């Protein structure tokens, strides 16, 4: 799989069973194309571990703000893309900010992972567990900071206008209240005297 956002600078591989001892099963990936793939079998409570291999092309370097790996369990309704339920999301920071200048292999381990449901790919529903590797990169933070500052100033100005308006409203109410109270007391006296 190509590194997202890195163009053709590298390639990622997950090695989940380096000893070759874990059972595998052939799984149909897609109803339309009849594509099949060998997948490892994991049971509820088993550890999930292995290594991530990041292979860079020659003379490539990648600056990053960290490398994060997530173990995700997700249910997707295939006829309604807005219905996605992520029931497991475990995350580990594999590398601190730095620079990749050569091929790198990073070991990972998620102990005692709860896997309450069996993986399933059907006509309407897909339930799956997968690993997602994210190489965190910084692109244009200065632009974002400027946008945030101007938004914050706009919010502060709006809050000040609201406070002034609210304060003026309270002053008007307190000025009107005594006159209404006097009218009420006079009307009450008239009714009790009759």
UniProtKB/TrEMBL annotation:
A biological-process GO annotation: intracellular protein transport
Report the InterPro entries cross-referenced here: Arrestin-like_C (IPR014752), Vps26-related (IPR028934)
Residue stretches in coiled coil: 141-183
Keywords of this entry:
Coiled coil
The family line of this record is:
Belongs to the VPS26 family.
What is the designated name of this protein?
Answer: Uncharacterized protein
């Amino acid at each position: 799989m190509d590194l997202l956002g890195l163009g053709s600078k590298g390639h990622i591989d997950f090695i989940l069973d380096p000893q070759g001892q874990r059972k595998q099963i052939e799984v149909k990936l897609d109803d339309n194309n009849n594509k099949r793939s060998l997948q490892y079998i994991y049971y509820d409570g088993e550890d999930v571990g292995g290594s991530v291999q990041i292979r860079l092309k020659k003379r490539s370097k990648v600056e990053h703000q960290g490398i994060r790996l997530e173990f995700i369990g997700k249910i997707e309704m295939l006829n309604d893309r807005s219905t996605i339920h992520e029931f497991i999301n475990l995350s580990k920071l594999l590398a601190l900010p730095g620079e990749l200048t050569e091929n790198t292999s990073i070991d990972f381990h998620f102990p005692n992972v709860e896997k309450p449901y069996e993986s399933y790919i059907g006509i309407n529903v897909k339930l799956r567990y997968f690993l997602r590797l994210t190489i965190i990169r910084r692109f244009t933070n200065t632009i974002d900071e400027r946008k945030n500052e101007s938004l914050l100033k706009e919010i502060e100005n709006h809050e000040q206008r609201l406070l002034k308006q609210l304060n003026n409203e309270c002053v008007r109410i307190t000025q009107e209240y005594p006159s209404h109270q006097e009218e009420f007391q006079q009307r009450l006296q008239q009714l009790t005297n009759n």
